[in-house]
Amino acid sequence: QAQLVESGGGLVQAGGSLRLSCAVSGRTFSSYSMGWFRQAPGKERDFVAVISWSGGSTYYADSVKGRFTISRDNAKNTVYLQMNNLKPEDTAVYYCNAAYGSYGSKWTPAFASWGQGTQVTVSS
Prior knowledge:
Layout: E1 3-7, E2 10-13, E3 18-25, E4 34-39, E5 46-51, E6 58-60, E7 68-73, E8 78-83, E9 92-100, E10 108-109, E11 118-123
Parallel strand pairs: 2-11
Antiparallel strand pairs: 1-3, 3-8, 4-5, 4-9, 5-6, 7-8, 9-10, 9-11
């Protein structure tokens, strides 16, 4: 069973930046596309970004395109999310998970288990 540990969240003013990290263990990390998802208060968990197993392909939700960058380090079993020009509507708990889907559409989480997530709060 995969263990996912997210970190790097915090409180930031609108326009600021944060870098999230997710360490993965218990699975062959480099075999999976990895994604970031987020859940805002009162809303369902939603897709944010995905990166292929090699790091060669990425895809973003329209709401974060041009502001967020997903990357990965297979030697460290870690996936990152660089978030720039943050907006109050980015406020949510952010989670990582393996993901499956097709580029051009939302991706679906692949692992049944989730980490604890990391809280991102953007003040206006």
